[in-house]
Specification:
heterodimer, A: 397 residues, alpha/beta, 2 domains, B: 292 residues, alpha+beta, Phosphorylase Kinase, domain 1, 5-stranded antiparallel β-sheet, 3-stranded antiparallel β-sheet, 9 helices, 34% helix
Chain lengths: 397, 292
Amino acid sequence: MRVLAQHGHQPSDKITRGVTEGVIQGAILSSRYVGPERVGEKIDEIRKANAEAEVLLDPEYYATRQIGTPNNQLGYLEDWTYFTAQRRRDLVRGPAVEEALRSVFDAVSGLDVSAHVAPNIYIPHSFDSMEAGIALNFVAGAKGAFAPAGKPVYATLALDRRALLSPADFSAFLDYLTTLETRPDGFYVLVGGGLIDERSDLVHSEVVDANVIASWMLLNFVLAQNGFEVINGCADLLSPFLTAAGSNWTATGWWSNLRLFSMGRYIKPEGRGGQLPVVRYVSKLLMNRIRNDELRAYARIMSGVLNGLAHDADYAGVPDRTNEALQTWEAISSLNQEVTDGSIETRLGSLDSRVEQARAAYAALQARGISEGIETVNEYLGQLSGAIENFRRLAEL
Amino acid sequence: MEHKPDIDELRRLRPELAGLEFLREGGFKAVYKAEIRGRPEAVKVVYIPPEAEENGTRDEIIARVKREIDALGQCRTNHLVTLGSMALEPISVSGHDYLIYSEELLPGESLRQRIRARPNYQGLRVLMKCLMEALRAIEQSGHIHRDIKPDNVMVTGLPERPFVVLDLGIAFKLHGTELTARSAGPPGTMIYMAPELFQPQYKDVLDIRSDIYSAGVTVFEYAAGKHPFHHRGERDYTTVYRILHQQPAKLAGLRGDLPAPFCQVVDRCFKRRPALRYPTPAAVLRELEAMI
C-alpha cells in the first residue's frame, strides 16, 4: 500500500506494469535517468498505464555537489538547465536559493506531474552546518517558488545518516522545520548511507543502525504530526518502519542504489565490473531479501517464508528483473499495509511482532542446519528491534 | 511583596480610587480592588526598589511593565484580562517608588484554588479552549506569555469567558525586545516551564510552543488533581530534573473517565520536544473542535 517506484537505470516496463497491476501507486522519476526531452513522454506512459498514478520528478539538485568530481556519473542531469554548480558561500545568501528554486521551477513547471518535488542541497554531516542552514532556506522557499503551478509541493530533505546521530542538532532542526511560516505541503526525504552500488544490500548498509532508523522514524513522526505529507525515497525494507511512524508514501526500486540512497551513486565505482546481482525474493516473514536458491531451501523447511502473494508464482522458476521488482513492491506494499492503521502503539506493536517472527524463523532455520550469514542477519534484526525501542523513547510514547 | 504600600497613604494620594481594598500580592506587585468612575477595577502597584536606580534596572522595570500593558493592549480576546481605565504612571508612597495602573476586575477565584475539584470533561475542554484562545491572541500579537499556570488563570463563572488568563508581566515579544534584567534567573515559574527554557540559549528556541507546554501542564494538573512532575514539598530543582528527563504519567491512566482523544491532546501539549507538541494554539483548537 502506498508504494512508489524509485526510477533508475534500465526501467524497461517495470513501472508501467507495476501501476497497471496496482503493486505500486506511481513513481518518482529520476532526472538523472530521463532528460528534459523525454520526461513528458515517460510521464504519459505511466499515466496511460494508470490514469490515477502518482507521478513525481526528483530534480536531484543535491547532486550538483558532484559536479566537477572526477569519475562522476550524472547522466541526463547535465541536460537539465537548472543543474549548474553552486558555491555554498553563494547559497548562504537568500537570493541565490530563490534563483535555484526558480530555475528548477522553470524547467519542470509544465510537466504533468501529480505534485512538484522542490530542489534542495545535501546535508552531508550535521544539522549544525552551513549546508543545513542552506537546506532550511530551500525548504522555506519551496512553496512560494512552486505555488504558481497550483500543485502540491514537496520540499526535499536529503541528508546523510550521520546527521541523524547528533540528537541535539537534529532536535533543533526539527524545531525549526515545524515552525516554518510558509509551509510546503510535504517532504520528500532521502537518507544516505555510505558507498552503495548496484550489488550492495540493505543488511550490510550503514543505514541499518538502531539510532539512524529511529531518528529517521522520528523525522517522519514529527512531520506527520505537524500535518505534512511525507514521501520517503529509497526506503525499501525500512518502508514499514517509516510507514508506522507516519510516512504517507515509501519508494524503492530494482537496483540496490534505488533501494538505499547514497551520494556515492553519482560516482563511478572503481574496479567494479562483472556480474549483475542475483535475483532475490523479499520474504515478509524474514523481513529480508533472499536469493532464489535460499528461498527454495527455506521453503522446504518453512512454508511461511513465502508471502502467499501473487508474485510468488514467478519464483517457481527464475524470475526476470521486472518480476523481481514487482515482487519487491508487492511484498513491501503488504508490509506497509500491516502498519498503516491504528494508533502509533498498535503500529509499533505490529512491527515488533514482525521482527520477533523473523528472529524466530531464522532461529528455526538455524536449528535445521541453515546458518549461512546468520550472524549478519541477527545483527540486522537486532538493529531493527533496537530502532523501534529507540523510536519509542525519542517520540516520548 | 517587599515594601507593600501603606493602603491609607495610597487612599490619601489617589482619592479617585474609591473603596480601595487589598486583594493579593506577588514578589514586586500588589493588587487592589477599587472603583474608578463608578466601575470596579483591579489596581496594580509595582514596586521599584531603590537599588534599581544604582544598578541601572529602573528603566528595565518600567519597560517591563510597559511591555505588559502594550501586550495586553494588542491582544484581542475575551480570554485574556483587559486593561482598565487608569494609565501607567509613577507614584511615590511613603518614600518608596512604584508604578500604578489598572486592569479590569474579574470575579471568581484562581484555578489554583480549584485544583482538586476533579472537573468533568466539558469543564476541561472549555478550559483548554479558553487557554488556547488566549494563546492564539498572544501569538498573533507577537508575544509569548511565559507564565501560564493555575495561579494565572481566573475561573470567573461568566458564561462567555469562564476562564481568563492573567499577568503578562514576563511576556516576551518575539523579534523585538530584550529580555528583562532578570534574564539570568528562570524565565517563568520553574515547575511550569517548558524544557527548552532551561537551556542557556533558550531565546533561540522560544516560540508559542513553550506556552502550549505550560497550558498542557496546567490542564493536566486541573484534570488529575496533581502536577505531572512536581511532588508536594519537593524542591523545584528535583521537579526540573523530572521535566527534563522523565516521562510523565498519561492523563488517561489517571482519569479513565475522560475521552481518550482529549487526554491525548493534553499529553501532546507538554511533550519534551517542541516539535512533538502542537505547532500553534490554532492546531489545538482544531483538534478540540473535532471532538465535540
